[in-house]
Design a protein that fits this description.
By secondary structure, the chain is an alpha/beta fold. It has nine helices and 13 strands. Helix 4 crosses helix 9 (about 290-305) and helix 6 crosses helix 7 (about 260-265).
């Protein structure tokens, strides 16, 4: 199973994500309306109860009629940007594996590897191409597959948050411009930049949602300053590395962090917008759909459910 494999099953994609307090299921229904409909379902479960809860959820939703996907969590994989090896396309993954040998926090022979190209400037002459390499322990991938198999939920895709966020970002892109997006959860922040639907930058920020929601005004202000500085550095670096891409704006994903949007809008040199998922999707199935904290809980799973499915040749 490849992390980024793309095939299509008639009934669409069902994302089943493992959260700390339960299991989330999301599917996006494209119906020709202004806003695609989103089906959401949550099953409370402690980690030891996941198999039983997953099996019940799968039966209730008719998971066998879907292609099912799940998400790895930060810390369960590594995502690295490396120079693409000068070998035939069908040999790239093997060549990248050995290039990663000294960069991973796991022995290379214990790693599952997948790759994703970073497109180059179409107008430029010969240039060095980079790619993203994703690595996760074989044992973790095997355990995740077994969990779904034993729960009778047909797992077809294992995805990562960077790609899920890219899926949302791609919907917001302006023609010929890059789109930056920033999100936060309990494990930290994630900055991505997409262009023409492709992921060009992914950077983790060691700043958690809890820090952004701190009750102390002084600590929150200090955290806002850290976020702003990290973003300024990242945007400057991106501009130097990908000079052919002009980033149109930064969109802040729902997070319920008081004052963060205002701080970024006042201090960054590109426009900043606040994302409201309820303006993009019909969230009738989601309780308190306009609450940024509720939207934050479902943001990544919903993004994963937007995965573009292509018919295999």
């Amino acid at each position: 199973m490849g992390f980024f494999s793309r095939t299509r099953k008639k009934d669409g994609l069902l994302v089943v994500a493992l959260a700390a307090d339960g299991i989330q299921a999301v599917s996006v229904r494209i119906s020709g309306q202004d806003r695609p409909g989103v089906m959401t379902k949550f099953a409370p479960a402690q980690p030891a109860e996941r198999r039983a809860a997953l099996e019940r959820l799968g039966r209730e939703l008719g998971a066998s009629g879907y292609r099912c996907a799940t998400l790895l969590a930060p810390g369960e994989y590594q995502l690295l940007s490396v120079e693409a090896p000068n070998v035939p396309q069908d040999e790239r993954k093997t060549a990248v594996r050995w290039r990663l040998k000294d960069l991973l926090d796991m022995p290379i022979d214990e790693a599952a590897i997948d790759i994703l190209d970073i497109p180059v400037d179409r107008a430029a002459a010969a240039q060095t191409q980079s790619l993203f390499a994703i690595a996760a322990r074989n044992t973790l991938i095997s355990e995740r597959q077994k969990l779904f198999q034993r729960a009778r939920v047909p797992l077809a895709v294992i995805d990562i948050p960077e790609m899920a966020q890219r899926n949302v970002s791609a919907l917001l892109e302006r023609e010929g411009r890059g789109q930056a997006m920033l999100s936060f959860d309990d494990l930290g922040g994630l900055l991505t930049i997409s262009y023409r639907g492709e992921l060009y930058l992914a950077r983790r920020l060691d700043i958690t949602l809890g820090q952004l929601r701190d009750a102390s005004d002084e600590r929150r202000t200090a955290t806002h300053d850290r976020v702003t500085l990290e973003l300024q550095r990242s945007l400057d670096h991106f501009e130097r590395q990908f000079h052919f891409i002009t980033t149109a704006r930064l969109t802040l994903a729902p997070c319920g962090a008081p004052g963060l949007f205002e701080c970024l809008a006042a201090n960054l040199y590109i426009p900043v917008e606040q994302l409201d998922l309820a303006a993009m999707f019909d969230l009738a199935d989601l309780p308190e759909a306009h609450d940024p904290m509720q939207q934050q809980r479902w943001f990544m799973a919903l993004g994963a459910a937007l995965r573009v499915e292509e018919v295999s040749p």
